[in-house]
Amino acid sequence: MRWDLPTPGFSFELLAALGHARAGILHTPRGAIETPVFMPVGTAGTVKAMTPDELRAPPLDAKIILGNTYHLYLRPGLDVIEPLGGLHEFAAWDRPILTDSGGFQVFSLAAINTVDDDGVTFRSHIDGSEHRLTPEVSMRIQSVLGSDIAMCFDECPPGDAAPEVHERALARTTAWARRCRLAPRANGQALFGIVQGGTDTARRLRHMGEITALDFDGHALGGLAVGENLADTYRILDEVTHQLPAERPRYLMGVGTPADLEHGIAAGIDMFDCVMPTRNARNGYLFTSAGRVNIPNAQYKTDAAPIDAECPCATCRTHSRAYLRHLYLSREILYSRLATLHNLTFYARHVRALRERILRDGQRA
Amino acid sequence: MRWDLPTPGFSFELLAALGHARAGILHTPRGAIETPVFMPVGTAGTVKAMTPDELRAPPLDAKIILGNTYHLYLRPGLDVIEPLGGLHEFAAWDRPILTDSGGFQVFSLAAINTVDDDGVTFRSHIDGSEHRLTPEVSMRIQSVLGSDIAMCFDECPPGDAAPEVHERALARTTAWARRCRLAPRANGQALFGIVQGGTDTARRLRHMGEITALDFDGHALGGLAVGENLADTYRILDEVTHQLPAERPRYLMGVGTPADLEHGIAAGIDMFDCVMPTRNARNGYLFTSAGRVNIPNAQYKTDAAPIDAECPCATCRTHSRAYLRHLYLSREILYSRLATLHNLTFYARHVRALRERILRDGQRA
Question: The complex's ipTM?
Fold first, then answer.
């Protein structure tokens, strides 16, 4: 089954389902994205430590990466990216890019001055300068960035906020989603809505109804894995995800561990992003088919084995744990490169293996 | 003309000469090295920010890299590198490696406790631990590292040291060279002697006589570009280099700028190493055919041009100055990678162009 999405050039193809889990293809003007998919995070116009060539090369073969509106707006700024022709040209990345709205970073990184019904005034975490984000400003920034998928600007209250704070944030997020839906977009730029509502199932489902009524190209679950119990995350995933419209892609924002991805896919999620593989790599935590390797551990001092003997990445085909440990302890740049390549390859293979299982064991759509 | 060197498996082939400048090939058991050659510096078992694949790939195509005995001995240490099979295996580098003796680093980085006729006792710049290097210890370390070319352990007095300090250092360096010549080496490991003597031509030539009498596989000029006037450096190069035996490779240690390399080649030098291309890259200084680019400069803020339009490296084929400036200012790891690749490619092309000129305009040997 294949459904056209509201934005011309985009369609979503469902190939197979296994329980709530789905295998499909998100077709975009810049190429097809096999789903479920993990999107490496390219915060500041670079997936940290990686070249575009490395991201594209199998077995990593990233079909889509994420860019952060908040970071790119503050540095280098639109006065650089616009004359350079947008984020794809600027970063030399020719495959799809999804940009977030800046909402999550404003609420987690910046010093908030005021939040009102129109938007958010905040100070940059880089230089303290004052800025204002509104739904329209976020959409204008994402339009200049020229991402293939833009996200609605939303309010992200802390996970432990009082119910009335949550309710006010939900009402604003819906009102802001309507304004984002009406704002101008770049040519060939899809827009996803974001369902908030914390860990209260009824609230989530109510907000889901408000967002899905707005005819977005896809739907995201936001505000999960932001400090709540993992059991609550999984409960919301289990109770909400499969009720999202089947004919649109579903995106779980900012999640998570390999086990989280497996749980999300089982619940019906199609798209993921997270800094975990890249950030953990730089901090010495490597994912393997036999569990995590904490590379500074003394046990790897003379270990001639690769990080993961089952991994086909260039790092595992070429380098020993002992060498990686030495590079890590010596703070060598090469360490971050090799570790990032491995962790991203692990995530890509993990999600692809789950996709293969759905295609093999599931029902053809 | 081709001469066998004292160590089996090594020979030096002279192809052409233009004045004192020479184009040749240093044949080693691990492959042929076209000379003049610039050797990227791989201090701690990695040319900073680069993979072996990148170093080997044209147009950079590094035929030999340098490893630092002092750094590798302190970290990861021989108790790691020896069981891993030596430096080539450890760092996954299958082409030739030249190791220095540790002398220069002991005298420039470590806290010296004592220098006597037998060797040097010093404290590690990493953890303050006490160690002792002697000619025999340096040779044993280089033997375990398994480099293709080892260097004699020498005393490196400061450039402004008093004449009697220089004389004592010279006498020790000659005595230590004799001891290095007698010390066991790895299979297929050549040994170069080092000519010291500061900026006094007569002293240099006298020491040259002492060192060249010891039948080393090649000869290095040490103790240049260590703070003296450039005019003095060039004078010594001009007056000494061509008097070194023509049938052995000549290596100018730790030098220098592109202009220094050109001057050294004109004087008859065959081999160079320097941290300048790699370190300058990380600090924002990029070499181009039209002079240096200081990438943080505001003039590059929206500059869509590559670092050097004439450069065939992947960085210049792919990325703009504006993007590199953004990565530099954002302290992104990718910046160091792209900049290092470019600067090393510039050095490699610079030296290769000079070699081509010698082959084209010089006299066939």
Answer: 0.97
